[in-house]
Amino acid sequence: MKIVVGFGWGRDPAAARVTSDGIVDWGRVRPAVNDDDPAAAALAADLAAALGASVVGVTFGGGDSAWAAARGAAETVVVDDATPGADTLATARVLAAAVRSIDDVALVLLGDGAWDRAVPVAVAAELGLRCVAQVVGAVAGGETAAGAAGGADEVPAPGAVRVTRRLAGGDELVDVVLPAVLCCAASGAEARPPGMRQVLAARRLPQTRRTLADLGVGESSALTTVGTRPPATTGGQILGGADAPARLIAALRADGVL
Description:
Elements: E1 2-6, E2 9-10, E3 17-18, E4 24-25, E5 32-33, H1 37-51, E6 54-60, E7 75-79, H2 88-100, E8 105-111, H3 118-127, E9 130-140, E10 160-167, E11 170-177, E12 180-184, H4 196-202, E13 207-210, H5 212-215, H6 244-254
Parallel strand pairs: 1-6, 1-8, 6-7, 7-13, 8-12, 9-12
Antiparallel strand pairs: 2-5, 3-4, 9-10, 10-11
């Protein structure tokens, strides 16, 4: 049994600077994984230990392809000539094809996608699997949910994992029959980041290099970026001096806020 954890590389849009003529200046911004990817990797490692499974990383070319291996993946599949873009469906098709190239996959874990939340759901649709989003925890069959009283109803059914979803109204427990796709959401910073020794050891673990032709998919994006521009904003005021509070109240009243 295998658990796939996908990780993608991008640059944080908040770190970019858009000039007045619409040019995006990335400066020295380095590619980084999605904010939710570490949560997916940590949950994959925990479930693999409980299920006796192995973890396989899947990524596109670019960035450190040993990222998942440093977090417990036994091997990594890298699609060298694919790049994530604005076309959610094209990205999902490549990821789904990479998952299909791996035998005996029971679970696919992806970050919820702070920069493109539709990708995990589209991957599940491409694979024809059930999908649960906003996952912050999961236990495998035979385990007891954290914080539970230990009753029989707190143990996931055979062939399922009990997932904790974080919703606006509270946490929800859902039994998910395998195989399935789980979209993981980070609840904080990565708790167990690997050290340098783990990173160096991870680079010696097996990697399978694939191309789009190997996977039988094309770079089929129907979207083309034609330009960029700064977001529309209104001018702001900086209020200073002893009378700043009174002027702020007057400005808010003039705008109809108060």
